[in-house]
Amino acid sequence: ESIKTVLTSPENRILIKRMLIKCADISNPCRPMEQCIEWAGRISEEYFAQTDEEKRQGLPVVMPVFDRNTCSIPKSQISFIDYFITDMFDAWDAFADLPNLMQNLDNNFKYWKGLDERKLRSLRPPPE
User: Which GO terms describe its biological process (predicted)?
Assistant: First the structure.
């Protein structure tokens, strides 16, 4: 009933659509783990390339944390989840009940924390 009330206003519908687009844009930590890891690697590589190019051209480095020589991908993912994802998806879960997404988020956060606790900076642990 409360969802119907929220959706009756055209302004609310527009706001919800905008929020859904934003969530879709940054939802990688809510994907199944293998997809999350794959896309974290792709996104990191894009940022590494940007930082490399800024350095090559002598420009100010916009995201110094994405220096490929010093970056910890697990730390970057943990920070991203803490700063952007958790509160936003907690709110969506309360609104729309998203247990699969929330479980993926929890699994992925634990994965990145585990790598970070082992002082690893890569996408995956080394082969045993």
Answer: signal transduction
